[in-house]
Amino acid sequence: MIVLKKEVYKTTYLSPRNSFELTDVYAEKRYDPLTGHRVRVYEIEWYTKPVDFYTLGEKSQRRCPFCDGKLELYGARFDTKFCKEGYLKKGEVILIPNILPYAENAAVSILTKEHVVPMGKMSKDTICDSINLIFDYAKRVSKFHKKKYRFAHLHWNYMPTSGGSIIHPHMQVYVTDEPLNYHRRVLEKAEAFKKKHKREFFKAYLDYEEKLGERIIEVTENCALLSPFASRGMLGEFLIIMKNAFSYIDITENDIESIASLIHNLMLFFESRLIPGFNLAFYASPIDKKIMRAHIRIYPRVYRDTETFATDVETPTLLYGESFSLISPEKNAKNIKDFLKNKIKTNT
Ligand SMILES: [Zn+2]
Question: Ligand 1 centroid vs 193 CA: distance in angstroms?
């Protein structure tokens, strides 16, 4: 039912790393078991270099609309009929309309009072409050418009390497009736899988990965974190599969606590590897449908070269959709598991 297909290929050249001898260099093509998306894996030791986001942050702070005092002046506000205060709040997190019209309901949650929160310094509670507030907003906006929006596209561009233009930590959401492009493809494939195999794909995939054990990182009561077989990022990709929730309205507070804890652990690992940013996206079935289990993908983002600010997304990835990974998902999973084991040891 679940097929993890991979092919080894080689290229041959006179290698400067091998005294210009004729050398075979091997790599893998892997295929995503749901979408068929192909990724290429070529393992090399890769070390990112640190980027001083505090200094960059200082430079950008005077233009930041999310900093204390500025938010009141420059932040958009909700119609007072929707909420009296013009914004929603949970803990320290504030949610306001997105000033850019990405969707009919587009909002942004400002996570912290601090302008710069480097990797590993964000609290688990802050992540939890923000996700809670975003799904609360999606439900409230549905009620306000007297309709049930089918999707809440929660996503996060963390730090400038992710493409996020404002360094001040913030998540975003579009509450819509339609899936976004890649999400639509995943839903179509998941629907076809269910029809063919009479099983929901992500549960079947998680069961299969649990049996193999090579790419599973952490399993909690509500969800599981793994390094997927065909990871797309230059430094891999991470997948959180919800065990019970299918759409955003199914997500419980306990689910969100588990998600926040897994993201928090990942952020600590990224800090240890000098990975400064990531992209994160939530995918789910439309409400009242059980096409696929809700899941989250996290894609670490680095500068490929910190001196020239070269990013890790190039033409093959962006325009051909051909991903290239410098670390195998198995190694990624092992590295994180080792890191988390050591973290527990040093904490006890
Ligand atoms: Zn700020």
Answer: 44
329: CA distance to ligand 1 center in Å? 35
Pairing of strands 323-325, 38-41: parallel
Ligand 1 centroid–CA 168 distance in Å is: 5
User: Near ion ligand 1, which residues have CB within 5 Å?
Assistant: 64, 66-67, 115, 168
Cα–Cα dist 248/296, whole Å: 12
Mean pLDDT by 10 residues, the chain (348 residues): 97 96 97 97 87 84 90 92 96 96 96 95 97 98 96 97 93 97 98 98 98 97 97 96 98 97 97 96 97 98 89 93 95 97 80
**From ligand 1's centre to the CA of 50, what distance in Å?**
21
- 25 with 96, same domain: the answer is no
Q: What is the chain's alpha carbon radius of gyration, rounded to the nearest angstrom?
A: 21
In the reported structure, the alpha carbon of residue 208 is separated from the centroid of ligand 1 by a whole-number distance in angstroms of: 44
Q: Give the integer Cα–Cα distance in Å for 256 and 2.
A: 28
- Quick check: 225 and 210 in contact, CB under 8 A? no
For residue 199, the CA-to-ligand 1 centroid distance in Å is 46
- 70 Cα to the center of ligand 1, angstroms: 8
Within this chain, do residues 75 and 216 fall inside the same structural domain, yes or no? yes
Q: Are 62 and 234 in contact (CB under 8 A)?
A: no
> Count of domains in the chain?
2
122, part of any domain: yes
Q: For residues 46 and 235, is the Cβ–Cβ distance under 8 A?
A: yes
| Residues 210 and 73 reside in one and the same domain | yes
- Residues 21 and 64 reside in one and the same domain: no
CA distance 262 to 128: 11
Q: Which domain holds residue 183?
A: 53-300+326-347
Cβ atoms of residues 244 and 295 within 8 Å: no
